Amino acid sequence: VYKRQASLSSEPGSFQNATSGNSTDLGPDDQPTRSGTTVTSPSVIRSNQLVDALHLDPNPFTPNGDGINDQVILDLDLFLMTTSADVSLTIFDMAGRFIHTLQPVSTSAGTQQMVWDGRGGTNELVPPGIYTYKLLLDTDEEENRTIFGTFGVVY
User: Fold this and answer.
1) Which residues 6+ apart lie within 8 Å of 95 measured at CB?
2) Would you say 49 and 42 are in contact if contact means Cβ atoms under 8 Å apart?
3) How many alpha carbons lie under 13 Å from residue 53 in its C-beta half-sphere?
């Protein structure tokens, strides 16, 4: 049985167990840029940071039904969670009016993805413009974590 550990030479104390097999093969939950062989930096762990690598793509997006960039995808990495958390994404226009909330997802640490198709609560396409989002992590801590951002819709 093969047992080893991978580490970051720039970060003393960082390690991850390694198992036998082809390291170029991705597991079922792995992504080409992040896999089960990724070593988490202790500086991230010490930072008490729950969310890392928050990324929207494409931004802006064009929900016009042509099959190209019709959805915006929010990718995020969740860290330091001891239990599952409810993650929700609420979208507002620039005047602060509620547009839509994506169905909350109960998830644990790891890479998560949320997708919005550019439709409001009554299933109508939103007009072009800049929109804000509120990402809420309802965690096992006393205080929930909230992240705000913007993205664009164009036609």
Assistant:
1) none
2) no
3) 13
DSSP string covering 9-63: TTSTT--EEEESS-TTS--TT-BTTB-TTPPPPHHHHHTT--EEEEEEESSSB--
3-state secondary structure of 102: coil
Helix%, strand%, coil% for the chain, nearest 5: 5, 45, 50
Pairing outcome for strands 110-116 and 105-107: unpaired
List beta partners, residue 105: 87
pTM of the model: 0.64
At residue 61, φ and ψ (nearest 5 deg) are -125, 165
Cα–Cα distance, 91 to 65 (Å, whole number): 20
Maximum average pLDDT range among 89-93, 106-110, 142-146: 89-93
Neighbours of 1 (CB within 10 A): 4
